[in-house]
Amino acid sequence: MAYRFRTRAIKANKAYLVDELADAAGVSVPTVRNWIKAGMPLVDKKRPMMIMGFHALEFLKNRKAKASRPLALGEFYCVRCKVPRIPFGAMADYVPTSATGGCLKAICSVCECRCNVSISAYNLPEIREVLDVAIRDNR
């Protein structure tokens, strides 16, 4: 899922027209029509197409959960392979971006592209048990 949508402005007990739902979710009208084609339930099959807010919220919640890719400790999401991978040689570089966190940078063990993941500095000792982490200066 490349674009994030807003769900906080969608009211559960309100019926929306396609353009109203698009405004509330912060997406375009064709995006809402694509959601309807993908299975978002309508009030009825007549025009104008009406969508109940609770149906839209449930559909978008399921869509967001399906797009989620949870990572285990020491894994990176490889954008090229589109799956979580352990880095090449179980090595990574930690680049601090603030006092409380930073970015782990590694190379995919399969396709050798660069992978990044943001982590908290608090979790660094746990990750060092799994990976060989070198701390780099961000300059």
Mean pLDDT metric: 90
Evaluate the radius of gyration. Answer: 21 Å
- The neighbouring-strand order within the major sheet is 7-6-5-8
Strand content: 25-35%
Number of helices: 4
Q: State the helicity in percent bands.
A: 25-40%
Overall 3D shape: elongated
Structural class of the secondary elements? alpha+beta
> How is the main sheet built?
4 strands, mixed
Give the termini separation. Answer: 32 Å
Q: Can you count the beta strands? A: 8
What is the number of domains?
Answer: 2
Q: H/E element string?
A: EHHEHEEEEEHE
Would you identify the regions where 5 or more consecutive residues have pLDDT less than 50?
none
Organism: Octadecabacter antarcticus 307
InterPro entries: DNA-bd_dom_put_sf (IPR009061), WH-like_DNA-bd_sf (IPR036388)
Protein name: Helix-turn-helix domain-containing protein
